[in-house]
Amino acid sequence: MIFGMWDGALFHIGPIPVDHLIVTEWAIIALIGVIAFLATRDMQMVPRGLQNAFEMAVTWSYDFFTSLMEKEHVAKRWAPLLTCFFLFILISNYSGLIPGAGHISGFQPPTSNWNVTMTLALITFFSVHIAGISEHGGGYFGHFISPSPLMLPLNLIEQVTQPLSLTVRLFGNIFGEEMVIAFMLFMVPFFIPMALMGLSVLLGAIQAVVFTILSASYIAAATSDAI
Description:
mainly alpha
């Protein structure tokens, strides 16, 4: 009954409502999946075309994240997750550049909604602690009382602020950018919005890189020998 009262739902799968935000996320995930499938279905020793582009993206991602982490085996283990973060956030950010994106029925750029950015941040949060426990075992929890047990409250607060900052930073930048572009499209229909959308291409990539770099740095800190 409660689900049925959700006015924002486009349709329902049983009692579960599906809104425009979820539809867009599914579309982006499907797009990434299709590209990955097409790029790897007939792999050649000398890559070309889509395989070459896909391998370049994966290689760049791995090399980049390896440089952020002091341990290569940690980078290998977590690079797939970080690469997925980067691709999903990048495409989500760019989906907001589609004209009228915020007003098309069944469509909304996922990263302009705090529920999505919070979910990504929580994935990072749990990944950090899983990585730390995998690397240090039970000794990982010792860093919460380092250098003194009196630091426990501050260290716990730090763990809470990390996902919170990731959530707010990504959501705030993308949502604010959308609002500015929508306002300018209303006020000045062509020239200024086109310039802003050009800037948004750069900012969308920067936000994807920043979120992923911060996630990688948190994992690197949790797996460091300094713990």
